[in-house]
Fold each of these.
Amino acid sequence: MTATKPNRPPSVAGKKGFSLISDEKFRQLYAALLQCRMLDTRLSATPGYDCWSGREAASAAVSCCLRRSDTVISTPRAALACYLHTGLLSASPSAPEPVTHFTAATEVALRHKAEKRGGLAVLFTGLAKPASMREAFAAAAKQSLPVLYIVEGPTPSVEISSGIPAIRVDASDAVALYRVAYESITRARDAGGPTILECAAWPSDPEPNPLLKLERYLAAKKLFRPHWKHSLEKKYAAVIADTTP
């Protein structure tokens, strides 16, 4: 993973250069992504539900890197990630300004840092006003706070992000998102500070469907079978039905 340097555009990740992922983790990632797809489909008709093109793969990828002690900030963008992390749907009414979410992430990250247990805060959010983001990012950078920002682009400029590493990733590529999330979260746990992850649409991407893309990827590795998917769907359908309105 390459960090952003001052006066340079954000790094682009997702094609090569990362460590290997175990077969078990690939299966965990697929199961998480399938749950996201099923839950997103069920919630799509719910008034106030925040539909975001980058929500599925990013939520699945990040959740596979988290520990129970970590915190996913409750925001409209984080509904799927909160469900995967806690098993519960978070009540997250839209705030007038996303700055509220940035403030919450800073406070939680400060608590995790003080506890010295390797915990971190994860924030799924849209962009706030430049001045508000500059203040939040400056505080996080100065104190090397353990926080991962997953934003719906464009990536904030170097001036706004206070030099925090910013990485642009294909929003439909769960494997790339997992690799970047894993490296970023490991860095945060080791007191390396925050990272900004931008989930972006790849205009030239021949397969923008994250679930289908991952199925094809796993099939090529002989890790995917339709009957396995069907068994997972049956399992998760019952759980989601009990959890959702």
Amino acid sequence: MFDNKRRSKIVSGSNKVVVSVGSHRATTHEPQINNAREIIQDARDEAFKIKRAAEDEARKISQEALDIEKRIAQKEESLDIKLTQITQAEKQLEEKGRALVKKEEDLTKIRNELIAKLSKVSSLTAEEAKKLILQNVEESLKTEIAKRIKEAQEKIKAESREIAKEILVNAMIAGATDWAAEYTVSTVKLESEDIKGRIIGKEGRNIRAFELATGVGVELESDVAGEVRLSSFDPVRREIAKIALEWLVSDARIQPSRIEQLVDKAKSQVESDMSEAGRRAAAEVGIYNIPQQALDTLGRLKFRYSYGQNQLIAAVETSKIAKKIALELGANAQICATGGLFHDIGKTEMEKEGTHVHLGIELAKKWNFPQEVIDCIAQHHEDEPFSSIESMIVHIADAVSGARPGARHEAVEDYIKRLSDIENIATSFSGVAKAYAIQAGREIRVIVQPDIVDDAGIVNLSHEIKQKLEDQLSYPGQITVTVIREVRAVDIAK
């Protein structure tokens, strides 16, 4: 048996492990000892590796820290340099700002001194000198202005001429009529001079009864034999009187009671004719659902004339042209046709004060016309700004209808005065030698003095004449302004 007291001792650094048990030596546990030795050795190796990795990591971190400190130091140095530069730049800017302020003050002082000297030398005030400079600038830019105007005009013409021609030609074809307007003359032919006595009646009672019933004046003493003239500002009254007098002359029974009877009958017939004329006019342009009162009033235009142009025919033409243009442009054709047909309806209100435009607006509102149609009536003479393309179309259609050849007739005196006014406006401009109104006032030929007006100036002159014609004259259609500058060189060979 072994002793209760055991001692063990492991000696490292040798290849043998001695186990002492009591007083005996044995090698029974050598494999376990070898395993322990290997474990210890592996542990040492692992510890060494961990230590080495930790040392490497520490060195790496230390190196990175050194690099970061170095970069921070470099950036701090760079920032210091930039801050110094910025400070210097700010100082320089401040100095330059003070220098600029001083220079500006000096320039203002010099400028004021120069203005004073120039005013003293030239005897011109600052405003006069400014005006002179502007005139010189305008003169120098005149060629450029004329060039721009001409380029703009050519561009507009090139883009719009063909389309405008096609639209207007189609519209005028649609509005063309195959019959001419009648010029009603309120005269009645008599078979003999003896009938005049019966028209006058005993002590003039027949003619007084006739004038009282019709509201027109009767002129028996005419320049033409066998003719009686009827005078009144109201064409409807004249027509009623004409029909009634023709019936009385053919009936030969002329007395106050018969006069009143035939006048009432003539009045009914004229009203029926006007109503039928209004209905036919609306149907001709394809407008329906119009109040009967409006159609009756429209028919009154049958006896209304402007520059010799029958107003009902003009209304139908305007309506057709407006409708055709609207179809070409994609506008509301019904609004254009209605506005064109009733654009001059205010001319039927002979006894009321106001322009035919304002009176027409009142009638259209009374008949509950759409606002678009009312706008066409209100704006067809540009009394108001155009509010829609439809109102512009009616304005154009009215101008085309009134300006076509043969549409209107005016007195010779008025015609001559209009041509004279056109020529006087053209000759009122500086540099104009002669001016001729041709083509019944539809064109003005202006001949300028070549030594006063140059090639660029004729463009500006034509534009200025056109503006003055539009501002100061009222005329049907349009006026073409043609400015001619001719330079001649003449020499004689001997």
Amino acid sequence: MTNATSVQSLFNTIAPVYDRLNQVLSLGQHKIWKQMAVKWADPKPGSQALDLCCGSGDVALMLADRVGPFGTVYGVDFSFDLLDIARERAAKAKNGDRVQWIQADVLALPFDDSSMDCATMSYGLRNVTDIPQSLAELYRVLKPGSTFAILDMHRPSNPLVRGFQQWYLDNLVVPAAKQMGFTEEYAYIAPSLDRFPTGKEQVQLAQAAGFSQVVHYPIAEGTMGVLVGTK
């Protein structure tokens, strides 16, 4: 996944199984971790909230609960097919009308400067083609004093946990993807983890983009983490 077209193609392809394989990939814990990210982003009633790389829409709807009937959530994704699934999910949700779904590149967001009260991103930063630019865009659109929270997979520093993570990917995640006909699409996860900046490196990148009070919280023995920062 070296260019924007291949990223878009990948997520359009896996859209039908995206939720099921996230369940497998996270040992069923991804909803808990996403709720943690939403809490750290600190959306308030009436907020203008942004969910980048929104996928099938579950985090955007979590934000919609927090912003209430007078707030708005903008769910942004590069994948047309995932956005279609998100719209279907929102149509069945009581708070779905609080979310606007937007097809866009997170490296060039279609929002004004200092227009958003908070932002989340789940499993998206590892897949963007330019992490510093994505953080710069996030900084641009957030209001001063606003907070972001970015959840993603990581390579744990503990060699035993790292070994288990790789075993799990090789023996459970990829075979599950194979059963659904998506072996090649999910084989990219391990190399993407190897390329992904560590938590400490992510803090430095966010600070370079202008954010203050940046902290990276390892979770699930370091196999996951949430980067939190304030503009």
